[in-house]
Amino acid sequence: MKPVAKRALIRALCYKVCYKICSAGGLMQRIKDHRYLYRRGSAWVFRRVVPDRVRTAFGTSEVQVTLKAASIAEARLAMQPHLESFERKLRLAAHGGVRDDPSATQPDPSMIEIEAVVRHWLAERMQRFARQGIAPEDETSALARLSELQSYREDVEAGLMVGRPTRSQMNEWIVQAIKAQRGWYFDERSAAHRNLRRVVGRAQIEASRREEQDIIGAPRVIGDQTFAPDEYRLDEMQDRARPRRAVTLRSLFDGYVKERDPAPATIKAWRRQLDAFVTYLGHEDASAVTTADVVAWKEHLLTGGGAAGNPLSAKTVKDTYLSVIKTVYRWGNDNGKVRGNPAERVTVLVPRRAVVREKGLNDAEAQTILAATLTTPPKKLSNQRALARRWVPWICAYTGARVNEVTQLRAEDVFKVRDVWVIRITPEAGSTKSYQARTVALHPDLIEQGFPAAVAKRKGPLFYDPERYRGGSSGNPQAKKVGEYLARWVRELGVSDPAVLPNHGWRHRFKTQARLANMDPEIRDVIQGHSPRTVGEAYGDTFPEVSLREISKQPRYSIGRSS
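and the corresponding structure tokens:
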């Protein structure tokens, strides 16, 4: 073989190998609002981590399947059988790890049970349409809607025909949603799945006919007796007679906490919000909660569910209150404690807020705070609080750390690594949002001011006295109280703009100053404890020399001082 041809062959082989490596191990991006669905290049991937307790039964730590799909809609459909297979294996493993033991699986629902569930879905859909008042405004839009309903009905009817190679996409989505809500994990090739698909299709046809009758003003005529009023009355009678499992909301929460082990502050806040939901309901029967209950509670919070009957903001209700209920029910459903998640699709449309200023402290505010740290503290102020007032704002200014990460620092967290002074921010001292420790170099200005010398002879926590602990909740630790004290002190200094947080404003300001100083974005995020932007950035370590190189780019604050 000629040298030129040989080199060309080697390049081709190298390209092929590199392509396979990139395709197999390339970066994957999670699809927003779609759990377990990822994008890797142009491919759609089902990806789910196997819990530690059942990895022996699965034989792997993670399941990845490349889906045959050209769009997100097709990917969602293609993912479903793999999701169901995963759930079956998970449930089998939880019953002893026997993969092919039929006694470990729940029996498939009967046709009677399937029809009752679909009737419930249809009733909710019609009620939702009635609440939202969806109706054509004029004759032109009415004719267009009638045409849409006709096409929609024909698509569903065609998808139900035996031997049809493709199914109605909307029909399949509803089937998947019902199975997920009810905790049904039967295979899509099973008789139960075929029955569910057919009954859902008939329900959609019935719904379209009813809407059509409403548009043309015709009397309501039930076309499919499966959805007749008598059948609904029979469902209600059977539901009242059916014994219910005693699963409480608090027991679900306790189970979630035991498995997830969140931070004490999170447990405290979430328990308070869950208790508010229980108080509103007047009971804590988890199986009796409906989507309507969650929606009603949401509206209660928005109109006067806060302290002293004040309304809560849309963002608070969405991100603080509803998220607790969603998370607890999701855990309960995944672990077979309850069926479905009544809060899953409940949300709050958060209005856009006008941004009237930057989130970070401005130059004048920063100067005011840092200058005040150099003044003589009140005589009655404890030694630890005085030390916090002197140094915590400066450390926040030069590291962009969260205030509670700084106020929990211990004497042993300040040390030298190869002649570089550093602080060690670690969960061992209290908590970090990422649950990961990090070592950050101190800015030269902090060293010249004498911070290492000021803490050299101290032991234990620097900014609070553990002996003053009065047995408070672990959800409100002493380090947090120090941060709250500093926030009050900053407000007293005249930094009173409610648009900027007195402590967290340093974190935003550091990011701004880092950009102005052209600090390396990757190292900037490491210093602040932000998550890596890519999988690649998560590899390797950042030595103190590297963080010192970048952190030193930040200009010193020109404030007269004496240590």
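(Above: one complete record from the training split.) DSSP finds 21 helices and seven strands in the chain.
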